[in-house]
Amino acid sequence: MKTRNFGFPRIGAKRELKKALEQFWSKEIEAEKLLQISRDIRKKNWQAQSILDDIPSNDFSFYDQILDLIYTFNCLPKRFKNLQKQENLSDLELYFALARGFQNEISDVKAMEMTKWFDTNYHFIVPELYTNTSFSLGKTIKIVEEYKEAKENGFNTLPNIVGPVTFLWIGKEIDKGFHRLDLIDSLLPIYTQIIQKLIDEGATKIQFDEPCLALDENPLIQTCIQKVYQKLTTDFPQLQITLGNYFDCYGANLDTVLQLPIHTLHLDLVRCGEQINDILNHPKLNNDIHLSLGIIDGRNVWKNDYKKSLEIINKVVHTLGKDRLILSPSCSLLHSPIDINLEDEHSKIHPEVKPWLSFAHQKIEELNELKLLASEKEASQHPLYIRNQIDIQSRVSSELVNNSSVKNRVQNLTNDDTQRTNDFKVRKIKQSIALQLPLLPTTSIGSLPQTKEVRKNRSLYKRKKLTEEQYSNYIQNEIKESIRFQEAIDMDVLVHGEFERNDMVEFFGEQLDGFTFTSHGWVQSFGSRYVKPPIIYGDVHRGKAMTVKESAYAQSLTKKPVKGMLTGPVTILQWSFVRDDQPREHTCQQISLAIRDEVTDLEEAGLKVIQIDEPAFREGLPLRKSDWKGYLQWAVNAFKIASCGVKDETQVHTHMCYSKFNDIIKSIAAMDADVITIECSRSQLHLLNAFSDFKYPNEIGPGIYDIHSPNVPSIYDMLDFINKAKIKIPLEQLWVNPDCGLKTRGWAETKTALEAMVSATKKARELFIEKV
Fold first, then answer.
1. Is the pTM of this model over 0.70?
2. For residue 75, what are the domain limits?
3. Based on the domain organization, do 445 and 385 belong to the same domain?
4. N or C: which end of the chain has fewer CB within 10 A?
């Protein structure tokens, strides 16, 4: 029996990579310093995993592993082809330009598109593919160089690479009239060259990750998988090839992969435990194939239950024997925090919860311990097993986890809890009378600029350098100034600015029972952007109001409506480490009830407009469409539980950004928010087509300018955008707003942009009023 890992967090225990990247980008350090820091991180990672039989190489990246392949294959977008020569860029500068764009007085080259890696919150750079895309290798091949570097440091590693089928599948066609998988015959020889170079350096095994096999059955994918791995196993019979799929079962692709003459097949048994029975009983199971059992959760933080894992291991051993068995995480540990031991006595983690947790370092230790226990005749008597079960049982029986009143409240939910009193047509009339808003109402999404001063005062308050009263007075002054500004430019629906909030999920989690937080539990989202997801360990409950004080204060300053701002239950769920001892649906219902209580309190405090943001609504979709119905049903109900406890006169908004809406538009409509605001500026209104084609019945605010750019559109640019929007959506349904929150922007550009937005809207009213 062997142990294996195929991906370790690349950010460094103290976020060394983030700091080095940002210093390099700001020209505070030279390239060699960045390269040295990266070498140090890789060496420490290999050392941390050295207790395993197979440790990975090529799992490190400065920015993203798909960007690494784009650069390795020299398949850069056409707009970048001559940039290096024109601007005298180093190889490293060109690499970062692909991800971040490049701009100076002469050149303005847009960055490549970024989207999420399957159903994770990790972002990758999307390959841009043309009919005539050619692939070639440069002088330096990253996977080969890192394999050599590991050997020089005394580590014989398992090179890991995203397979050619997945690489092409996640790309996008820039030209029309071809399919991206048509390029497989051009790309495959490049993989062949890489393999030969690895063999020349002494490699005897390699893992190809093909998570496209977790998607719906597709004959194109199956054909390409057969072609690729039949050829590679034929060309390199001496090489042990592992095929890795994760985030779901192989499903209808199982017959295809079991007929491949590969050495090892990896299974994600955390996301799809039942597939082990399908494989062991499959008539086409190769008598020589090895199985990599992904029994350690690579995407969550909970300690492995050795009793359950050993039951699976023993079942496989009974059929295959130990020699054909490899123990591994379900997927790369890229999605896990690095080390629970970094959480010292000053950590935010609840002390009772800490023994239940396992981060990347601990997951490596768990693999080693499971291998040891699997060889024991009486594993249940071993001290490692006993200690593990004590921790597992303490979590099961903990009063911290279980709250009977919360569970009872969820069980007593009825259909009435997911319905407004009347339908939208009736509500619209009542809200029109209550709010007295003009045609094309203007608003912003929620957050306003969080300056250095705002962040400094929050830090001082958290470190107890400011009293509660001092901090409250400071926040109220920021709110007052923001309300005065919005009134001065004649915005219609105002926001309080969210100056008291750190993160849209963390802020609420810190005030809800059932959540705990880390001090060092960073996970990479993309590039140098890291997040610290909250940990939901128990039944979720709101003890007291979370936002009413600031929102009510803002409303007291103006006669115009102010929006109460909340994060929705699905987004709080998706952007947290979620408990694994009950269905996600149940946890989401608990969060929904907590948000519902807050919505009711905001209404009682005089807020007539309440926004419940759900930017992660689509992100939660299962990978296979056959599983969509169940998810969409409970996700829609979660939003409705949160939002349906108010009067008809209270207007409920939601916000979604950077999502594809076409295939879930019915579910978005079923959420029955009175107003939805979406991102439309980058897509140039393309995303609005889904709402137009569906004849979306409620009101909609297509974001008319891109808040992620410092450029401020002119009044006429915005007026043109409004004019195009009214062609797709009836004028009386349209709102005008930016495409996302303004937290990361500066005040100068924000004021200029919002003033222009309001001016453009007033001009639009003058032009269009007679048509309504």
1. yes
2. 2-397
3. no
4. C
Q: Residue 564 domain-assigned?
A: no
Question: Within 13 Å of residue 316, how many CA atoms lie on the same side as its CB?
Answer: 29
- Considering 339, 372, 397, which residue would you say is the last residue of a domain? 397
**Is 449 found in the same domain as 379?**
no
Please say whether the dihedral angle defined by the alpha carbons of residues 757, 762, 763 and 764, taken in this order, is positive or negative: positive
Is residue 657 a known part of a binding site?
A: yes
Tell me the pLDDT tens digit for each residue of 409-463.
999 999 999 999 999 999 999 999 999 999 999 999 999 999 999 999 999 998 8
Cβ contact 244:6 at 8 Å: yes
Q: Which of 179, 282, 686, 708 is catalytic?
A: 708
Residues 379 and 454 in one domain: no
pLDDT, tens digit, for every residue of 479-494?
999 999 999 999 999 9
Q: Is the domain of 374 the same as that of 456?
A: no
Angle at 19 (CA atoms; ends 96, 86), nearest 5 degrees: 25
Task: Give the integer Cα–Cα distance in Å for 356 and 375.
Answer: 25
Task: Note the residue count of the chain.
Answer: 772
17 in a labelled binding site: yes
Is 469 annotated as belonging to a binding site? no
Q: What is the CATH number of the domain that holds 445?
A: 3.20.20.210
Show contacts of 44-48: CB within 8 Å, 24+ apart.
44/12, 44/13, 45/8, 45/9, 45/10, 46/150, 46/153, 46/155, 46/157, 48/8, 48/360, 48/361, 48/364
* 114 inside domain: yes
Domain boundary among 346, 380, 397: 397
307 labeled binding residue? no
Whether 653 is a known active-site residue: answer no
For the chain, the domain total comes to: 2
Residues 65, 124 contacting (CB under 8 angstroms): yes
* 539 in a labelled binding site: no
